[in-house]
Design brief:
Strand content: 25-35%
CATH architecture: 3-Layer(aba) Sandwich
Distance between the termini: 39 Å
Strand order of the largest sheet: 3-2-1-4-5-10-9
Number of helices: 8
Number of domains: 1
Radius of gyration: 17 Å
Shape: globular
CATH topology: Rossmann fold
Number of strands: 10
CATH superfamily: Vaccinia Virus protein VP39
């Protein structure tokens, strides 16, 4: 498998939830609220990185969680954590834009956190969405993704107080390159991403078989407001860099299951 730009960022990624309050109190809070009740459900975490969300999904009640990521270093770390914690999560190395052996038709819910923004081409974006749909059961399911706001703030300092800086060429075209810097403790995480419009996301999802697509603005948790006050979050919430995509798929044609 080809090297991933995330191979060298395992330590920073693992620390990011604790070191960057917006990840816990806005991103995780909003994604998990959108996902909802997972009791008894099977979940695929696509682009699971070091297993941060896979572990949260399992402890939230999912009956089965499998994490997939293209970074061998991230998967190795996630497996080491699993050996220690024994949560019953399986981790698989695989490309989110390509068929993953043994995964088709197995899941009630697919999640993806900051995966779609790393699609360098329209075909890869469509491939990621197709992978999510194939993983869901033939009678349908949900794909819930935390993804880059297509209209994130152009001021590179807008998110700096939250530990993040985004830069991108203007005007932003489909697939134009951007760069993210994230300050995590003493480390700086540097990764490239690609800009896609809301229309491009929706087109890729519809082509994959998702017939109901909703964009959800994030919100701050009560705990986040209590710990940090409401003023801290005002700038971020006015133009968040993350949005939640909640996509529903009905049955495959000929599956024998009615809507």
């Amino acid at each position: 498998m080809a090297n991933s730009q995330f191979d060298t960022t395992v330590a920073a990624y693992e620390l990011s939830m604790a070191e960057m309050p917006f990840r816990e109190h806005i991103e995780a809070h909003s994604l998990l609220k959108a996902v909802g009740d997972l009791q008894g459900l099977s979940v695929l975490d696509l682009g699971c990185r070091s297993g941060l969300y896979a572990r949260r999904l399992r402890t939230a009640g999912a009956a089965q969680v499998i994490g997939v990521d293209e970074s061998e270093a991230m998967i190795d770390h996630a497996r080491q954590r699993e050996e220690q914690e024994k949560l019953g999560i399986r981790y698989v190395a695989g490309n989110a834009a390509e068929p993953i052996p043994g995964m088709d038709g197995q899941f009630d819910v697919v999640t993806a956190v900051y995966v779609l923004p790393y699609a360098p081409t329209k075909d890869v974006l469509e491939g990621m969405c197709a992978t999510a749909r194939r993983a869901l059961r033939p009678d349908g399911g949900r794909f819930v993704a935390a993804t880059l706001n297509p209209n994130f703030a152009t001021d590179p300092q807008w998110y700096r107080r939250y530990g993040v800086q985004l830069t991108a060429s203007e005007p932003r075209g489909e697939g134009s390159r951007g760069h993210l810097s994230a300050w995590v403790g003493q480390e700086v995480l540097e990764v490239d991403f690609f800009c896609w419009s809301a229309a491009a996301h929706e087109r890729a999802l519809h082509l994959a078989g998702f017939d109901r697509v909703s964009w959800i603005r994030p919100e701050v948790s009560d705990e986040g407001t209590k710990l940090h006050g409401s003023a801290l979050w005002r700038n971020y919430l006015a133009n968040p860099h993350v949005l939640i995509l909640d996509s529903m798929a009905g049955p495959y044609p000929g599956s024998g299951t009615a809507n």
